[in-house]
Amino acid sequence: MSTLLDIRDLIVHRSGRPVLEIRHLIIEKGGVLAVVGPNGAGKTTLLLVLARLLKPESGKIQYCEQPLESIPDLKYRRNIGLVMQDSLLMNRTVFDNVAIGLRFRRLPKREVTRRAGEWLERLGISHLRQRPALQLSGGEARRVALARAFALQPELLLLDEPFSALD
Q: How far apart are the C-alpha atoms of 131 and 107, rounded to whole Å?
């Protein structure tokens, strides 16, 4: 198995104090890592750093054996899926919310329809496909966000409390 992420001596500060310190962490391709801890332990901070939405003070992160900073943002982000605590849905239909990332990647319309439909079905929300996403319950919105991430078939899937508020 090859290495997907290799994190060394990572330090992140917020408001002048360290909120995340990782001496060494390796995640293999195909591997699963669950990070558990109390509020303020740095779980969300780690995901934000890995999504390149927050810059660490120091440390090195390698993605597929390349320094993360040497990979252009767009190229890297096309390989990841991110679901944050808040579902962050757009003012569009459920289907459009699931399909948007696939459309950005310029997949053929037939493939977009297939993948989005597959994940709507798998997560039990296909009956909501034409509903405005902003009219969903918290659990339904969470399922839409998960479907959007899974439909991308990302190499790296980052989930921040993905199962909270699920019906």
A: 23
| Angular region, 52: left φ>0, alpha ψ -120 to 50, beta rest | left
Phi, psi for 59 (deg, rounded to 5)? 115, 170
Whether the full predicted model's pTM is greater than 0.85, yes or no, is yes
Other CB atoms within 10 Å distance of the CB of residue 86 = 13
Q: What is d(CA 118, CA 23) in angstroms, rounded to the nearest whole number? A: 40
Distance in angstroms between the alpha carbons of the first and the last residue of the chain: 36
Q: Could you list the pLDDT tens digit for every one of the 167 residues in the chain? A: 799 999 999 999 988 899 999 999 999 999 999 999 888 889 999 999 999 999 999 999 999 999 999 999 989 998 999 999 888 899 999 999 999 999 999 999 999 999 999 999 999 999 999 999 999 999 999 999 999 999 999 999 999 987 776 66
Q: Which residue has the tokens 């989930």?
A: 159
Helices (H), 105-137: 109-122
